[in-house]
């Protein structure tokens, strides 16, 4: 890992509640923006590909006990990730950590950047609307210390108490039925600096959450402190913790592990959300419903087949190849370039990674393969995992899994920047 003036802080393993069996789901009624109860779980993204379709073999699934699986489609209970979503955004403070300055200044640290990030990443398919019906600091009835919030704290009892107090304080002015999920922007002087301990956390798909106006507060992101590494870039990069946390309310897992971002590097905001801007993997965009079935090819045919991929950052065109290895894992292939949300790409090319739907969040469900192993990488951008920065494969290079009889070759590139990819399966 490249040494920088500030070490990349290993993030907390998120305290996420993965829904494996729901008897009561929540979704948003068409055209109203109000939540209603459903008798069956509602998926996060509108992926409605039947198992018998051409994509069936690529719709990998993990076991029922897997926490926040990479499987497709996403399990029920999370917020939907297409169309208009409304994020109730509250700024809270405490008697032992009173908010400094205007609460809306805290809001402005994250918006409109978060909205714009999702618009760019989703190709306009997600209309993210953060609303602040209470524009001032919402004072909690207890001190911050009394909630017992620390790194890795479970939902019970501290966060349950905090959510109940937030609901009680906000309910006179807020109709919780009007929102898809909750953002809690905590005054930055509550708790330790993010340089020392990252407290930001999301509780997602939680059917046992406190109820407000008849609906559970099942998807809630909490942001603490400021992710400021002292490089002077906070105004441009500090908001990125919120798109990461909101990724969880849409059902995406953590891609970093206890050791940091070495499995995926800076190729997905669910891996690294410090430093320069970055996007989501194509697999995540498919999970979220941001790619059409026609943009995803499921490679199951024995022999050699050739495909054309267009840059992931651009609208339209083929975006993702998936080569299933089993019903739970396979190889994903996409073309990454320095455009859109991807600011730190220093070696454009074909990104190849393995997705395992049977691995828990924070335990390495995705592994990026490095075309230039032990090179030290090509980036000098602060807080970017350097070793994997040159991971993409260039024309003439290939990846091979000899045991499974799979070879992926970059056959060439055209003047428009599209890549030809050749996949061989025995």
Short description:
It is built from 6 helices and 19 strands.
Describe it for me?
There is one protein chain. Helices cover 12% and strands 23% of the residues. It is built from six helices and 19 strands. Strands 3, 4, 5, 6, 7 and 10 form a six-stranded mixed beta sheet that branches. Strands 11-13-14-15-16 form a five-stranded mixed beta sheet. It has a four-stranded antiparallel beta sheet with strand order 12-19-18-17, with no helix packed on it. Strand 17 and strand 18 form a beta hairpin. The radius of gyration is 21 Å and the shape is globular.
Secondary structure topology:
Elements: E1 25-28, E2 35-38, E3 83-93, H1 103-108, H2 113-121, E4 126-131, E5 138-139, H3 155-170, E6 181-186, E7 201-203, E8 211-212, E9 215-216, E10 220-223, H4 234-237, H5 241-249, H6 282-287, E11 296-298, E12 303-309, E13 320-324, E14 329-336, E15 349-356, E16 366-368, E17 398-401, E18 406-413, E19 419-425
Parallel strand pairs: 3-4, 3-5, 3-6, 6-10, 11-13
Antiparallel strand pairs: 1-2, 7-10, 8-9, 12-19, 13-14, 14-15, 15-16, 17-18, 18-19
- List low-pLDDT spans: 1-46
Shape: globular
Q: What is the gyration radius calculated from CA atoms?
A: 21 Å
Question: Could you spell the SSE succession in H and E letters?
Answer: EEEHHEEHEEEEEHHHEEEEEEEEE
Tally of DSSP β-strands: 19
Q: What is the distance, rounded to the nearest whole angstrom, between the alpha carbons of the first and last residues?
A: 36 Å
The major beta sheet can be summarized as: 6 strands, mixed
């Amino acid at each position: 890992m490249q040494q920088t003036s500030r070490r990349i802080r290993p993030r907390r393993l998120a305290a996420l509640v993965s829904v494996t069996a729901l008897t009561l789901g929540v979704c948003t009624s068409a055209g109203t923006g109000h939540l209603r109860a459903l008798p069956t779980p509602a998926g996060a993204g509108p992926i409605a590909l039947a198992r018998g379709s051409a994509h069936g073999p690529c719709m990998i699934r993990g076991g029922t006990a897997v926490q926040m699986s990479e499987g497709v489609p996403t399990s029920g209970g999370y917020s939907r990730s297409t169309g208009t979503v409304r994020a109730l955004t509250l700024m809270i403070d405490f008697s032992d950590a009173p908010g400094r300055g205007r609460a809306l200044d805290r809001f402005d640290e994250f918006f409109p950047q978060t909205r714009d990030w999702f618009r760019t990443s989703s190709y306009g398919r997600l209309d993210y609307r953060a609303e602040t019906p209470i524009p001032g600091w919402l004072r909690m009835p207890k001190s911050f210390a009394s909630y017992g919030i620390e790194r890795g704290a479970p939902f019970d009892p501290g966060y349950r108490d905090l959510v109940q107090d937030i609901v009680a304080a906000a309910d006179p002015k807020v109709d919780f039925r009007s929102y898809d999920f909750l953002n809690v922007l905590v005054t930055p002087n509550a708790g330790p600096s993010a340089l020392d301990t990252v407290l930001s956390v999301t509780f997602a798909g939680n059917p046992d959450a406190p109820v407000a106006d008849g609906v559970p507060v099942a998807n809630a992101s909490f942001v603490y402190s400021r992710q400021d590494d002292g490089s002077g870039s906070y105004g441009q990069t500090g908001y990125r913790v919120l798109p990461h946390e909101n990724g969880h309310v849409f059902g995406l897992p953590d891609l970093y592990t206890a050791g940091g971002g070495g499995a995926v590097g800076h190729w997905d905001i669910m891996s690294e959300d410090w430093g320069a801007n970055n996007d989501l993997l194509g697999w995540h965009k498919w999970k979220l419903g941001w790619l059409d079935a026609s943009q995803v090819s499921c490679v199951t045919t024995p022999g050699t087949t050739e495909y054309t991929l267009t840059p992931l950052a651009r609208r339209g065109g083929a975006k993702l190849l998936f080569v299933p290895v089993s019903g739970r894992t396979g190889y994903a292939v996409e073309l990454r370039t320095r455009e859109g949300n991807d600011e730190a790409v220093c070696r454009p090319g074909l990104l190849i990674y393995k997705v395992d739907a049977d691995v828990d969040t924070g335990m390495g469900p995705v592994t990026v393969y490095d075309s230039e192993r032990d090179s030290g990488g090509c980036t000098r951008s602060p807080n970017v995992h350097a070793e994997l920065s040159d991971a993409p494969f260039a024309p003439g290079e290939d990846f091979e899994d000899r045991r499974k009889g799979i070879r992926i070759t970059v056959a060439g590139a055209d003047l428009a920047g599209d890549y030809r990819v050749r996949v061989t399966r025995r």
